[in-house]
Amino acid sequence: MGDISGAREELDRLGAALRAQLVELIADLTPGTDLGLLFLDEPTVADWTEPPRYQYSGLIRGERPATVAAADIVRRATALLDAAGWETGTAPDTTGARPAVVVTGHRDGNSIEVRVGEHTSAVMFSGRTPALALRAPREFRLPDPVRTPDTVETGFVLCYECDGLGACPECGGRGRLSDGQMCPECLGARVCPICRGVGQLLVSGLSDYQRTQYPELRGAPE
Ligand SMILES: [Zn+2]
Ligand SMILES: [Zn+2]
Fold first, then answer.
1. How far is the CA of 169 from the centre of ligand 2 (A)?
2. I want to staple 162 with a disulfide (CB 3.0 to 4.6 A). Which of 50, 79, 169, 171 is the partner?
3. Count of structural domains within the chain
4. What's the gap in Å between 201 CA and the centre of ligand 1?
């Protein structure tokens, strides 16, 4: 339903190509690495946009053989990727405290990074496919309010924040904005943060500030 034709097959094809290349690199550069730890079995959500976008990604650590210098790993990784048609580059790795080098490869939207440094025997391999939408965007409809002027209970008033909607009025109960960002009002909780989803507030429980939201309560007994 609403699936984008061929999108899952395309993502699976990219994931399989990524895995094959990572396996080749790992087997060559850090033999003996447990490839079972290369988590590339299922795509995960990369962006909570509507529709969400999925990708395969994996990170695995190998051990550089004692007889092999980090610079040799850089050269060999670059050569292997070049030979397989990847667009390659090298750059200083600025993510760690010690100097290291990252070899990058790009092909068909897939990317691979190999991080090596002389100070450590660890060689970090990571890769990801592009993030693809697997279904068409769903049209969003606000949910029905949980309370209306006709159904608000005696002793209660409609919530001034959501007007009885119950769902968070900022995101409409999705928990996220249409750009995928966490909703700043409910922080992902999906319900109105004032009435916590019930759509109405007990008059006797209103704070002084909350009472100012209801001009009709002015002068009424608390
Ligand atoms: Zn509310
Ligand atoms: Zn919200």
1. 6
2. 169
3. 2
4. 8
Contact 106, 58 (CB under 8 A): no
Whole-number Å distance, alpha carbon 206 to ligand 1 midpoint, is 13
Reported as a pLDDT band with limits 50, 70 and 90, residue 28 is: very high
Task: Say if residue 37's pLDDT is above 90.
Answer: no
**Which three-class secondary structure string do you get for 158-208?**
ECCCCCCCCECCCCCCCCECCCCCECCCCCCCCECCCCCCCCEEEHHHCCH
In a domain, 58, yes or no: yes
Q: Helices in 1-148 by DSSP H: which ranges?
A: 7-29, 70-83
In a shared domain, residues 184 and 114:
no
What residues sit around ligand 2, an ion, with C-beta below 5 angstroms?
168, 170-171, 183, 185-186
168 Cα to the center of ligand 2, angstroms: 4
The predicted structure's pLDDT at residue 43: 93
Are 128 and 154 within one domain?
no
Give 77-110 pLDDT, tens digit per residue: 999 999 999 999 999 988 777 889 999 999 999 9
Asked if the structure places residue 1 within a domain, the reply is no
Per-residue confidence band for 220, with pLDDT thresholds at 50, 70 and 90: low
Provide the percentage of residues in the chain whose pLDDT is more than 70.
97
Residue 217 belongs to what domain range?
Answer: 140-222
198 CA from centroid of ligand 1 (Å):
7
